[in-house]
Specification:
The chain is an alpha+beta fold. Helices cover 15% and strands 31% of the residues. It has one domain: VC0802-like (2-Layer Sandwich), CATH 3.30.2130.
Length: 137
């Protein structure tokens, strides 16, 4: 199986806008829909909640009781596609952040991954990635 060591360069592309991670209770109805042209919008359903990642500006339209919003996230897209048999990609992105005491939120898609960092921690995150050879644009 291929590992991240065989993947010579990881490139993260910063997305425009600030993002939010939102908790919606299971009682939320109707569920929000994706605005046209959103560079990142993700709804995850679990047995206990809905989690939504969207542009922070789009949270104003959410009107559900019990909603919790964590804003001021910067989003980075891992340029892909990334093959499923390539292992260790998330570790390669997050271990330098953990070493630098930077929290993150990760969203994976079929082709790639998005990693969200609190805006206040972006400088530290960019430096940590640069030190391990991860390119950010």
């Amino acid at each position: 199986m291929a590992s991240y060591n065989n993947f010579h360069e990881l490139r993260l592309r910063a997305l425009p806008d600030d993002y939010a991670v939102v908790h919606l209770p299971l009682s939320s109805s109707p569920l929000p829909s994706c605005p046209a042209g959103a560079p990142l919008w993700s709804l995850t359903v679990s047995a206990v909640e809905y989690s939504l990642v969207l542009r922070e500006a789009d949270t104003a339209a959410l009107q559900s009781p019990g909603i919790q919003v964590s804003g001021s996230w910067a989003a980075f897209y891992l340029e892909g596609p990334i093959p499923f048999n390539l292992t260790g990609i998330i570790a390669r992105l997050t271990v330098p952040l953990a070493d630098a005491k930077v929290g993150c939120f990760v969203v994976s898609t079929f082709d790639s991954d998005f990693i969200l960092i609190k805006k206040d921690d972006c400088g530290t995150a960019l430096n940590a990635w640069q030190q391990v050879g991860i390119t950010t644009v």
